[in-house]
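Submission checklist for the structure archive. All mandatory fields must be present; incomplete records are returned to the submitter.

[x] Identifier: DMT family transporter
[x] Organism: Prauserella halophila
[x] Residue count: 348
[x] Sequence attached
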Amino acid sequence: MGTSRTDAGLAVGFVLLWSSGFIGATMGTALASSATLLAWRFAVVTALLGLWWLTFRRRRLPLRDVGVHALLGLLTQVGYLSGVVWSAELGVPAGTSALIAALQPIVAAALSGPLLGERTSATQWLGLVLGLGGVALVVSGDLAGSAPALAYALPLLAMLSLVAGTFAQRRLPSHLSLPESLLIQAALSAVVFLSVAGFTGETAPPMSGEFWFAIAWLVVLSTFGGYGFYWAVARRGSVRRVSTLLYLTPPTTMLAALLMFGEPVTAEGLAGLVVCFGAVLLALRSPRGTSRSRAKMATCTSTPCPSTASSAPPASWPPRDHARPKPRSWRTSSTARRRTSSHPRSRS
């Protein structure tokens, strides 16, 4: 029960905080370019995590783990965020980007079988397809745009980069803590985005309280919260699970935009919200016959798990040991001696 509540809490936190990134991007790009916004976002994240590490940790990090998280940062932060934010700057509507990003659960489910051996049932496939339809309903009023044709490839590349990063995290396990992992990823992202901002001459931030409020929003909620919950869910669950939860981010963002910016919610959006919620419930159902064994295997990886702890007794109980005969008790021995003495010995 405790594990289920923890997983549910992580899922809710992930959806809410991951959705905050779209709100923060809307606030920030209204005041500065995407290069400036991303550069200062990760500069602040790196400074805060670096101060924490110097104060409380200050230990030598294994070179392999540094390389692993540098790769993850390149895929899940640099690749994903640059594609999404740059496409928005070029005029791709947010709804179109959200719909393209919603292909991720289907791509992840299709690849998780051959790459990780994670089985996807027919019911889960139905949920994934319904979820894509629900996202299409949510963003149906925002699917037209006048951006250049190549700009629409950026959200697709961003989605594929996030999928690749999620698979890399599953195939390249690390023993670093979550804050240390985020420190390495954020440091690499800061170097990349500051270099881009410097190359384009957009390093200097606007000196306005609204810009720094947007930076604080993105640092605290979207990076520490969104990416922290993302990796926590990915470490505890499957690639398909963390990807499927992304279906709930467009309708969550829709409701947040209503509350914060007064953006109207259409009937199609509400219908898409209901469809997305039902689709996620279907897609997160464990295949019949494997959920119990997977839960037991997950428990055994963290604590010693006796082989007969939760199994039913065998047909013959107590079990018989055929390899070594059991010693006879004194009652059995005395009874056998009485029976032998009561019968005359046969004569040769």
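[x] Structure attached
Curator remark: The chain is about 70% helix and 0% strand. Residues 2-29 form the longest helix (28 residues).
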